[in-house]
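Posting for a labmate who doesn't have an account.
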Amino acid sequence: MHYKKCTKRIVCGDLAGRLAATLKKSLKGRVAEPVAIYIENICNGPFIMPIRIPDKLPARKTLETEGVMVMNETEASRQDVRPLQIALLNLMPNKIRTETQIARLVGATPLQVELTLVRIGSHKAKNTSQDHLIDFYETWNDIKDRKFDGFIITGAPIEKLEFEDVNYWTEIEEILDWTKTNVHSCFFICWGAMAAIKHFHDIPKYELEKKAFGVYRHKNLKFNSPYLSGFSDDFSIPVSRWTEVRAEDIKPELGLQLLMDSDVTGPCLIAEETGKRLYIFNHIEYDSTSLKEEYDRDVQMGTPMDVPHDYYPNDDPSLDPQNRWRSHAHLLFGNWINQVYQNTKFNLCDIGKK
């Protein structure tokens, strides 16, 4: 394979490369010196797309402090493989934080991955600047003619609303139907998981009397599941939700398998082999301080809220919380990426074909 000469190449196997691969539009006038990466179009052949990573890219500082590796052209040319195409439909208000959380986990494997950031077209985000959305995101209408190896849908702070009352529910249903023909495997998170399992299997969500909020012990129910490879018998996962799904609704005849469960907060992770879908109702992707930020926000707004369960040392909010779920978050996302890689179509255009 021959490419034009390029001074630098950021490999999509590292986190910077995955973020770089999301930038489909030129950021004119923001930087003087662009960094180029190679993107391979499986349907139409290879081409080079220069990607500009501005100094003010919100994730840049995080990437630098995490010691992200940048490979030169000689090293990168040894990885002459098709990158996995993963898209993230980001429904969270703080899109910058969420895109960094997911990119960190998706980017923690030796596989090359190109991450595309997607937003709802029928809803105007209030907490993220339009410049950021225009520069780094595409609407679903922009990408619906493409195919992806993996598709992630995040949570959204709209749990108490009935699904039909969400102003972009129609578009969500269209996207979920589209994944059946254009995506090899899906990973749904929190509200995204509840919306998907309602759409595909008519499993309802139930409102809780009190918010499930904190870090809770969970059990590994299926040791031989490839998604739980390397998992402990029990482990901690952050939970932050006002609704739940119930175990009695997860019937084997639906092709669903409960993989993780908590004695306190109920079902956590469900796998659906026939549809190659994962549903996780809790926030294993959260940063160390995510629950703290939510708690501090509620306190400042005067919203009655208990201290997050088993989160702060000695339940003291003046102390820094300790992250006890990071390794399992990397395991889960790494296992999912590996399953996608092992089972997806070699030719991206063949996804959805029988």
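Reply:
Got it, the structure tokens are right above this. The chain is about 25% helix and 25% strand.
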